[in-house]
Amino acid sequence: MRRDVSRRFLSLRESLAELSRPECSxxxxxxxxxxxxxxxxxxxxxAIEACIDLATHEVAVRGWTPPxxxxxxxxxxxxxxxxxxxxxxxxxxxxGLRNLLVHDYIAVDVTQLAETVAMDLEDLRAFADLAHxxxxxx
Length: 138
Prior knowledge:
Elements: H1 2-19, H2 27-32, H3 34-61, H4 70-79, H5 85-103, H6 110-136
Helix pairs in contact: 1-3, 1-6, 3-4, 3-5, 3-6, 4-5
């Protein structure tokens, strides 16, 4: 189990590093370069999915009610004081973006995706930092 958690952290860190490249938040570049757009969509999907997996894992480890939906894992963590509630609500919205990227990919607004990369990666980083503390604690 610890190995799976470590792999999630690694995927999250790698995806966030790639998404931090300036061209990833440039809407014009994403519109002009389909390969870049595909990469950004995938990196965003992986980063959010890793956060969902880490949140769901923590809910299970603590013996709390399993979340019915991905977003509920963040809300459970927020409701129990493991992450700030405003962050939990924003991460719940990120779970919705992950669903869009996976299930309704033709509806992705490239300009909005670029804005999300520019403005919202800090929430994923903040979650990673908090989750890293829980998983280091025996």
